[in-house]
Amino acid sequence: MFTGIVEEIGRIRQLEEVSKTAVRLTIEAAVVLDDVQIGDSIAVNGICLTVTDADDDAFAVDVMPETIKASSLRTLEEGSSVNLERSMPANGRFGGHFVTGHVDGTGTIVGKTKQENAVYYTVDIPPELTDYFIMKGSVAVDGVSLTVFGISGNEVTLSLIPHTVSQTVLGNKVEGDCVNVECDVLAKHVHHLVGKQHKQN
């Protein structure tokens, strides 16, 4: 489980193709390596991945075909920057919202405008995910916990404060870029339960 509060920006040192649809990533980092152990979970752009190797300045993860197909990891290359967050410790502070690291799909940034000290991003999301979005609800975009400020059809508008812009990879994203989207897990559970109850009635 994660919080959506990014700890640092890492850099892809090596992208090794294990097969046509599976890769091994070596990611340069600092903060998340402080107490890392083999088998630990680290969210990379919001995707929960397992550490398979680590040294003083980098760690490695294996990315399976399904993850490649379902996420923006397919757009990464050596030198790309990524958001990193360690899994939440049981005694840690909870600053964002419940983020599982299991992305529901990808969205496309279709608008980016500055509004005083904030930057507004409009993201086009898959139609099948729209039921999980409500005004002032939560969403994780590339692993960043954000609040929904606007909904119009398949597009959602999100507001980023200066800190989020400067401390995550979202600050450098532009129109046309692909982002990982994880809907609020509580909204997904409620939607599932209500839908199941409706079918029974």
Task: Summarize the helices and strands and which ones pair or pack.
Layout: E1 8-17, E2 23-28, E3 41-44, E4 47-54, E5 58-63, H1 65-70, E6 81-86, E7 105-115, E8 118-124, E9 138-141, E10 144-152, E11 155-160, H2 162-167, E12 178-183, H3 185-200
Antiparallel strand pairs: 1-2, 1-6, 2-5, 3-4, 3-6, 4-5, 7-8, 7-12, 8-11, 9-10, 9-12, 10-11
Lumazine-binding repeats: 1-97, 98-194
Pathway: Cofactor biosynthesis; riboflavin biosynthesis; riboflavin from 2-hydroxy-3-oxobutyl phosphate and 5-amino-6-(D-ribitylamino)uracil: step 2/2
Subunit structure: Homotrimer.
What this model shows, in words?
This protein has about 200 residues and is mostly beta strands. It folds into 2 domains: about 10-85, Elongation Factor Tu (Ef-tu), domain 3 (Beta Barrel); about 105-195, Elongation Factor Tu (Ef-tu), domain 3. About 15% of the residues lie in helices and about 40% in strands. It is built from 3 helices and 12 strands, in the order βββββαββββββαβα. Strands 1-2-5-4-3-6 form a 6-stranded antiparallel β-barrel. Strands 7-8-11-10-9-12 form a 6-stranded antiparallel beta barrel. A hairpin with a 2-residue loop joins β10 (about 145-150) and β11 (about 155-160). The mean pLDDT is about 90.
